[in-house]
Amino acid sequence: MQINRTPGSPATGRRSLLLGSLGVLATPAIAQVAAFPNRPIRMVLPFPAGGSSDAHIRQMSAIVSRDLGQPVVVENRTGARGSLGAALIKGTPEPDAHTVSLMHFSILRHAHITQPRPWDPMADFTYICNFVSYTYGIAVRADRPWRTLQDFIAYAKANPGKVSYGTSAVAGTSHIMMEDLSSREGLEMIHVPFRGAVEPTLAVISGQLDAVADSTAWGPNVESGQMRALALATEARVERYSQVPTMKELGFPIVAHSPYGLFAKAGIPPEHLDVLVRAYRKAFESEASRDICRRFDLNAEYLGPTEYRAMIDQRNTYEVELIRRFNITA
Question: What is the pTM of this model?
Answer without folding.
Answer: 0.83
